[in-house]
Amino acid sequence: MTRTPSPARERVPLPIGIFDSGVGGLTVLRAIAARLPAEQFLYLGDTARLPYGTKSAESVTRYALQAAAHLVERGIKMLVVACNTASAVAMPALAAEFAPLPVVGVVEAGAEAAVRASHSGHIAVLATESTVRGGAYERAIRARRADARVFSQACSLFVALVEEGWTQGPLVEAVAREYLQPLLTEKTRDGLDCLVLGCTHFPLLRKTILQVTGAEVMLVDSGETVARTIAETLEQRQLACVAGARGRHRFLATDDAERFARVGGRFLGAEIALTDVEQVDL
Fold it and tell me: Closest Cα to residue 194, out of 115, 263, 138, 249?
């Protein structure tokens, strides 16, 4: 098993490894890089097997272990599970397989942020089918606030809309209203005040979702919380890059590097050069 080398022995700073089923996790990379601009990042999008959100827990765990193993073989100092579905079902397996490598997932971070944001304790989670079915967000939220009331809604069409670049307009708003109507009913009756964006694609729909829910509902995505957790972990383990250095992003995709570069730029908020994307097999 590859071990995390000590900082003193590193000649070239090791990157932080991040994986997702596709390009959605680039929203997480964007938040981490904004907080930690000196860090190097190696991002893997398993585009050949997306979406993870409709797969069984067994399949998702297998895919996650394979993606993580590839990143570890390349040499990383931390693993970030940017996929909500993989974070919901595969974290125990990943932590056990790659110990003592630090492994950070988005579900725990999202739950932490939701509990801090909600005054009423009535929290809704928008996610994929697998994430909702597994109940990971509900468990993580209630572990932090026992009296929380959590309502989850699977929103699989959101993923397809964002992948096509459709984030606003009448069609997108109609889909959002269809998904959110049960939550709005709960809101009217019980005071819903926080909504967790439990998929890395969903932050790109923030404006449309707020048009439906109203600005009084706080929207939470785990990117910024994950970034804070990573910063703290790097400092504790003396793995942080020297401040002032300029980090670099490298990208791996398991299918269609051209589409990864083209679509991924919308999620990262910056152009991705095709020459920076390497197609790999897992």
Answer: 115
Q: Is 83 known to be catalytic?
A: yes
Q: What is the pLDDT of residues 191-205, one digit of tens each?
A: 889 999 999 999 999
Q: What is the pTM of this model?
A: 0.87
Catalytic site residue from 155, 194, 199, 241: 199
Residue 198 contacts residue 129 (beta carbons within 8 Å): no
Tokens of 205: 């729909």
Place of tokens 């889909």: 175
Element (H, E) at 249: strand 249-253
CATH of 14-105+224-279, one of 3.30.420.130, 1.20.1250.20, 3.40.50.1860, 3.40.50.300: 3.40.50.1860
Q: What is the pLDDT of the chain when averaged over all its residues?
A: 90
Contact 142, 148 (CB under 8 A): yes
Indicate which residue of 83, 155, 194, 241 is catalytic. Answer: 83
Q: Is 48 exposed, middle or buried (0-12, 13-18, 19+ CB in 10 A)?
A: middle
Q: Is 20 exposed, middle or buried (0-12, 13-18, 19+ CB in 10 A)?
A: buried
* Residue partners of 203: CB distance under 8 A and separation at least 6: 27, 197, 221, 223
Rounded Cα–Cα distance for residues 169 and 215 (Å): 18
> Does 155 participate in catalysis according to the annotation?
no
